[in-house]
Design goal:
about 80 residues; CHP03905; DNA synthesis; three-stranded antiparallel beta sheet; nucleotide binding; globular
Length: about 80
């Protein structure tokens, strides 16, 4: 799935979900080291757990962040 981000440096998040587990999370744009690290940390994680851990994280004065945007993408995925 691909998700167009809003309010962060990364422009898009791509990921796969198999058996309700998260795989191959990649960000287009953003802080490369941080987004690569985030992708590796959530690899194989249960989707609901990832949402719980990442939802609501802010980046400086912004009301969202790359982790928060991933949580939003996963919430959208779960409604389909």
């Amino acid at each position: 799935m691909k998700y167009k981000t809003q309010g962060v440096c990364a422009r898009e998040i791509s990921f796969e979900v198999r058996d309700n587990k998260l795989y191959n999370v990649t960000f287009t744009g953003g802080c490369s080291g941080n987004t690569q690290g985030l992708g590796r940390l959530v690899e194989g994680m249960d989707v609901k757990e990832a949402i719980q851990r990442l939802d609501g994280i802010h980046c400086g004065p912004r009301s969202t962040s790359c982790p928060d945007q991933l949580a939003k993408a996963l919430k959208q995925f779960n409604t389909h």
